[in-house]
Amino acid sequence: MNRVISNNRNLSRKECGLAAVTLIFVFLAFSLPLALGANVARADSPVVDLHFDHFYDFEELEGALRRLAEAYPKLLTLSSLGKSFEGRDMWLMTINNPATGFEMEKAAMWIDGNVHGNEVQASETCLYTVWSLMENYGRVEEMTRLVDERVFYVLPSQNPDGRAWWFDSPNTSGSSRSGKKPVDNDGDGVADEDGYDDLDGDGHLLLMRRKNANGRWKVSSDDPRLMTRAASDERGEYDLLGTEGIDNDGDGRINEDGPGGYDLNRNWPSDWQPEYVQFGASEYPLCHPESRAISEFFLAHPNIAGVQSYHNAGGMILRGPGSESFGEYPREDVAVYDVMGEKGEKMLPFYRYMVIWKDLYTVYGGFVNWTYEGLGIFSFTNELWSRRQYSQKEQDSGRGFFGGSTDRLEFDDLLEFGDRYVEWKPFDHPTYGPIEIGGWKKETGRVPPLWMLRELCHRNFAFTMLHADQMPMVEMKDVVVEKVGDRAFSVTAEVENTRLIPTISARARQKRIGLPDFFSIQGEGVEILAGGVVEDKDFDRIRLAEHEPARLKIEGGIGSAYSSRATVTVRWFVTGSGEFKVTYSSQKGGVVSGLGVL
Amino acid sequence: MLSTRFVLLMILLVCPSVQAVDDLGWDGYHTADELRLALSDLVHGNGDRARLRQIGSSTEGRPIWAVELGFSEDKVAEERPALLVVAGLEGEHLLGTEACLALIRRALLASTDDSEAGPDFEDLLKDRTLYVIPRAHPDGGERMFARPLAALYGNARPEDEDRDGRADEDGPNDLDGDGFITFMRVKDPEGDQRIDEDEPRLMAKADRTKGERAEYKIYSEGIDSDGDGEINEDAAGGVILSRNFPFRYAMHEPNTGAHQVSELETRALADFFLAHRNIGAVLVFGLADNLIALPGKGKGGGGPPLDKGRGSTTRRGRGRSRKPVTSIPSADAPTFKRVAEAFQEIVETKGKAVAAEPGSFHEWVYFHQGVPGFSTRIWHREFPKKESEENAEEGEKKEEAEKEEKKKEKKEKKEEEKWLAYSDDVLEGRGFVNWSTYSHPTLGEVEIGGFVPGIRINPPADRAAELVKGPVEFVGRLLAMLPLLNVEASVEAKGGGIHEVRVRVTNDGEFPTALAHGVRTRQVSPVIVRLELESDDQEILAGERLGRISALEGSGGSQEFRWLIRGAKGSTVSVVVRASKAGTRTTEILL
């Protein structure tokens, strides 16, 4: 009886890696060399030539995914989850090495982005993830191991219509957030009849201002490009009239009912609230084709054990709850979140680990809220890009998540060569008369400059790989047979979870989400007399199963590798002879077997 | 050869997969096939007044039907105020479907035959639309005709209730072969039940502190099919559809579905409702009842509770949030009260209010969509009183004077006794299977017996025609209550080619054009008043291009709009008034 107990348990990829690579060599030694043989590339001359100083519109993204799938047919499968409202495919890339086991028997990391159409760099980060894992497979040991041990489901855009809208039409930084299903936002019985208009046809949606001796705005004394409020004892010189547009439907209002007008990230079942409580929630959870298709995939894939959903911006690593009324998550799960979140702050300079409702704002019916609260999966949302990255300083003078105008102008001048700002120009407006149009382009604030995009992709990719690496992974520690009578034996088997995340989260345990883990034994010549979980190894305290001793239910699963619940030991009392097999199967922790003989 | 085939076909036709049932007196209720035939018969020949269409399919592939009724050719159905009547979302409630069929028949007959008393559907449906979904859960309805009959009312989606990785593997078994899944009582020292000393057919919970000895355990009828030690712990299906809607949805509770509106049936119903914004009220024939007693009355009884305060917002941390409304705001309470009173005036049935389950349809339409939702069970065991029942009722009066703690337990027992009396007297004993011994494979000697499933939900079908009369008449009353626009215009020439146009918009219905909660949820759009010019020579000098009224009160609530228009004498302008729940009116105005 030789038990190997690791006494150095820090959160690091390498250590877990060694254990897991050993495991793979033990069980799957035949397959790895084959996989390693293919596509070994130099890091600086990739097999698939993708660039990460580029934003991919929907068609380009589709093309890049196809090229990857063709280049790595053994590991990649490109499929469509369904069609968006306007009929675009919801492309999902599955990364799975079939040589290392069945897809459904390996923990899977879900990675998506761009649920808000304007949050574009989320898709490049997803694309970078697939590309980087493939290009480095067989070259970088740890990435090879991740691909072999895990499954990745990567959906670069949850909202392909919104993405296409951002690229193909004039927009502000936030105007293409919604999906494209027409919604009657102003309650006049007509949908999407009065949106923004690019009046001067320059391809940008900018601001309108009008000279007015009684206006309350004036040109800033700091910079003639900026507007500030006039002081209370000072005359202003301008009215600010909002974003470019006219009264398209003649109702006396401007821009009051643009395309779409809902929020696909408020349409998820957990802690969902109707429209009057949560703007953008829509009529009922999962009523949109995009959210519905994704939810169906999740319900059919209980092997998903980690979720990352990329957004922009502000530089945040977010976890739920989304509302105060939900209450805090179970302490045991918060501890797991905290380990990853704090590590993330190191990997992502200028990002902060935050709780959605407390540190940002209230969100009812958010996607990562459903995946954790509804499905029990540890889930993060990274808000990609922080204005602080421009200055590389923790503090700058700007306010808000997207930075103040002064900083913007400064960086526009110093680093962007003036490319983000459009000077005010006169225009004759049908309702307002002579006005001026000018301001910031849609890329400002939320989207990184192209020359910083690749770094953003890589750092967030690395954080998500840390998350993926810490998904539960069960390992058979030992299977020990002892004689307990003339023809009777005891079989003691122990399984360990080698990673930070438990096989069943505390949330899932509380709400009885998904299946429990199962520890089973079978052998042709072996009869199972009794069996149960060993609750105290020192005193042989066993909780005998009342029924089905050959298939023991492990209700609580196995806890974190860094907890007192890191192992599960069971003992069967058996008779007979010959070989037998013990199997531990966990929906999120994988399936592992060991052999023994009587 | 041909005749042999014909005979075979005949045999197949007369031996459907579902058994004919006459033992419970249910054979007058409509099976899925009979319902389809009845609906197409009713609609046939009434093409200008009634439309039958399929709005979805059930989990087992049965069509879900909707009938649209409206007697005016010049108005679009979607532009008239509408009432939606839904039955059979609880598939086991067969009576509701009969009420729908009677309603459609009555509405269509009334237009050709004036002899019927009661509401004038012909007149009502000139300006209004009636949508009827006679069986929203057809699989559940069909199951009531199959044997063995079990009290399993979810839809057909497989569900792994005992979380063992296998779905629907241990359902009940009709061990005694009587066609009903009843109960097994077995002597067990760990049980908590005893035989009721007053009525040995009934079981009662033993109170050991009062010296009552428990001797029995109760199981539902069946065996441990999967050998896990539990009996009937994972039966076929499913999601209980009346728990699958978003208001008060109980996620992670058994049989509520993976999420809100997760099922084909609930999605078909929700989408139908959402696609018809003219629906100004919903009436459900189902198990909940918020009409038979006034809302807010009784503990957990009544309909939805009445609000005592106002919703509010909270602000802590950075998170600012609005609180959802979970009880009827005081501004809307009179509407609910008025409707319940109208129901009780028309329908003589007595009974107790039955609270909606969390996730019900009729509460969703009100609390999230701002449309008043009502539900009635139609039948509450109000049969001609037998002596035994009269005595029992007297007993009940005395009991109410007794202490509160004893009350509930006794009431429950009394309820059982009453149903037993009903089975004995009205069903001639067919509603209860007398206990008889059976040798059970794992429990040993047991007795099988107890109430037959479904007898408390549906009376014998020959009672249906009489029972649904009141509810059908009530539908007429409810239609008459819907908000209804009236628009009056006047013109005054001011001289110099300038005219003042006045338009008065009035709500002639009883309901407001939007309930307070409809306005708050923003799901009921405001009344839109739009002045449309007919030529380029005309111009609006003063007045709103597009006027909005968030809500007009019922029974004559009105508002006036004024415009100053420049235009040639004799030219026309028009005013379009559009209220999602009260219709659309276009009025031409001659300057």
Could you name the key traits of this structure?
heterodimer; A: 598 residues; alpha+beta; eight-stranded mixed beta sheet; five-stranded antiparallel beta sheet; elongated; disordered N terminus; B: alpha+beta; six-stranded mixed beta sheet; four-stranded antiparallel beta sheet; 22 strands
Shape of chain B: elongated
Cα-based radius of gyration of chain B, to the nearest Å: 28 Å
Shape of chain A: elongated
| CA-CA gap between termini of chain A | 15 Å
Short overview:
The complex is a heterodimer of chains A (598) and B (591). Helix content of chain A is 25%, strand content 25%.
Walk me through this protein's architecture.
Chain A starts with 12 loop residues before the first helix and ends with a strand. The model of chain A is unreliable at 1-10 and 12-39 (pLDDT under 50). Chain A is 25% helix and 25% strand. In chain A, a hairpin with a 3-residue loop joins strand 22 (579-586) and strand 23. Chain A has 598 residues and is α+β, with helices and mostly antiparallel strands. Chain A has 14 helices and 23 strands. Chain B is built from twelve helices and 22 strands. In chain B, helix 3 (94-110) crosses helix 11 (464-481), helix 7 (333-346) runs antiparallel to helix 11 (464-481) and helix 9 runs antiparallel to helix 10. Chain B starts with a helix and ends with a strand. The A-B interface holds A 184, 187-189, 250-252, 269-270, 272-277, 283-287, 295, 299, 323-325, 356-362, 364, 374, 511-516, 518, 546-548, 553 and B 160, 163-165, 227-229, 245-246, 249, 251-252, 258-262, 270, 274, 314, 316-324, 367-368, 520-523, 525-526, 528, 530, 544-546, 548, 578, 580.
